[in-house]
Design goal:
Blueprint: E1 3-14, E2 21-32, E3 36-40, H1 47-54, E4 62-67, E5 70-71, H2 75-85, E6 86-89, H3 101-111, H4 116-129, H5 145-157, E7 163-167, H6 175-192, E8 195-199, E9 211-216, E10 219-221
Helix pairs in contact: 3-4, 3-5, 4-5, 5-6
The structure holds adenosine-5'-triphosphate (ATP) and magnesium ion.
Family: Belongs to the ABC transporter superfamily. Macrolide exporter (TC 3.A.1.122) family.
Keywords: ATP-binding, Nucleotide-binding, Transport
GO molecular function: ATP binding; ATP hydrolysis activity; transmembrane transporter activity
């Protein structure tokens, strides 16, 4: 089965000489279509660095990143490829304050040359899918933190990505709202086939993921086998 994400010997060293920090150290990883994976580990162990490389936002010092069966390249090509293939969700929803929920979701599609009418239809579909259709016309300041994060997930899904990378998306939410975000991811992975990596410190929602990865000092600790083959 094709891996949606494959890392081969991925290493990232920040700085040089005495100041060099080996933030990610020879990571091999395969994430399959529809797999929802949690990434845990102490502060500074390299989780965000790993996600940035998986998301083609940073290039490894060594090693290869493969996404949906294609070796990732640098430069402009990476930017277009990233836009079409990868969705990001961060700790803060980072919605644009002067755009409504629906317009926030539309924005990424408009950049991708989707027509205004089509983007609107898709945006409303996604907001409905995430249970926030009633909020489509509201501005971010009129939404709860959990609602804003669901809009951010809708935005991440807009271009039908093969892969979603989420960096502590529930850190600013209470546990019930955080769990809802995990439930949404689980549903997205199983219904849409999206591969999802979610960095989290929240152990209470781990029953919802297919696999837990643990990182320490830039390396993945061999741990739990995938629940699904
Ligand atoms: N741009 C950078 N330049 C230099 N060092 C960096 C840079 N970004 C991260 N580091 C270092 O790389 C290591 C891994 O950082 P990273 O942000 O990936 O950790 P993390 O696991 O995401 O931590 P947290 O849970 O606190 O978010 C840390 O030692 C950090 O100080
Ligand atoms: Mg981090």
């Amino acid at each position: 089965m094709t891996a949606m994400l494959e890392l081969r010997g991925v290493t990232r060293v920040y700085g040089t000489g005495e100041n060099a920090v080996r933030a990610v150290d020879g990571v091999d990883l395969r994430i399959l279509r529809g797999e929802f994976v949690a990434l845990l580990g102490p502060s500074g162990c390299g989780k965000t660095t790993l996600l940035l490389m998986a998301g083609l936002l940073d290039a490894p010092t060594r090693g290869e990143v493969w996404i949906a069966g294609r070796r990732a390249e640098g430069g402009d090509k990476a930017r277009d490829f990233r836009r079409n293939t990868i969705g990001f969700v961060f700790q803060k929803p980072n919605l644009i304050p002067f755009l409504t929920a629906e317009e926030n979701v539309c924005l990424g599609m408009r950049i991708n040359d989707v027509s205004r009418a089509q983007a609107r239809v898709r945006s409303l579909e996604l907001l409905d899918y995430l249970g926030v259709a009633a909020r489509a016309g509201n501005y971010p300041s009129q939404l709860s933190g959990g609602e804003q994060q669901r809009i951010a997930i809708a935005r991440a899904l807009a271009n039908r990505p093969a892969l979603i990378l989420a960096d502590e998306p529930t850190a600013a939410l209470d546990s019930a709202r955080g769990r809802r975000v995990f439930e949404q991811f689980k549903r997205v992975a199983s219904e849409l086939g999206t591969a999802i990596i979610c960095v989290t410190h929240d152990h209470r929602s781990l029953d919802l993921v297919d696999r837990v990865l643990e990182m320490s000092d830039g390396q993945l600790i061999p741990a739990s086998a995938p629940v699904r083959p």
